[in-house]
Specification:
Largest sheet: 6 strands, mixed
Radius of gyration: 14 Å
CATH topology: Molybdenum Cofactor Biosythetic Enzyme, Chain A
CATH architecture: 3-Layer(aba) Sandwich
Helix content: 40-55%
Structural class: alpha/beta
CATH superfamily: MoaB/Mog-like domain
Shape: globular
Number of strands: 6
């Protein structure tokens, strides 16, 4: 599988901080024998997130686009809204599995608003921005991502 990673964080975008979740995500993907074909960051602006989601899905043609961050309840957390705006297909069962897992794993998981969907053949999955939860969610969904993106 080919992955694209989009970190949604104002501080990461301007270079004021790094995302602690990035290295473990890269390692997890590599351990599964898959590759990352795009890594980028974007500020927490719905218009900019939508543009990057469209560009990555329509041009980069990764199998899976993972967004990291921007899925909470603050005013700046716009990733779920941007994903709903650009996706062509919804994946409600994958979303439910992700939400159920987050709620079981973490009390604050019930506040997690992530979305999933497909655009131009790329599966979009919104992951939380906290380090351990990112990997936990990715590992939980990995078998499903493999199944959903297999080319026949």
């Amino acid at each position: 599988m080919q992955f694209a990673l989009l970190i949604v964080d104002d501080g990461v975008y301007v270079g004021n901080r790094e995302t602690p979740a990035l290295s473990p995500v890269l390692k997890t993907i590599e351990e599964h024998g898959d590759q990352v074909v795009f890594t980028g960051s974007v500020p927490e602006s719905r218009d900019l997130v939508e543009m990057d989601l469209e560009k990555i899905c329509d041009i980069e043609k990764a199998d899976v686009l993972l967004t990291i961050g921007g899925t909470g309840l603050s005013v700046r957390d716009c990733v779920p809204d941007a994903t709903r705006a650009v996706r062509e297909e919804n994946c409600p069962v994958l979303k439910k599995k992700l939400h159920d897992h987050c709620t079981e794993a973490l009390k604050q998981g019930m506040l997690y608003r992530a979305e999933t969907g497909v655009r131009s053949g790329t599966m979009i999955v919104n992951l939380p921005g906290t380090g351990e939860m990112v990997i936990d969610c990715l590992e939980k969904l990995y078998p499903d991502l493999v199944s959903l993106t297999e080319k026949s």
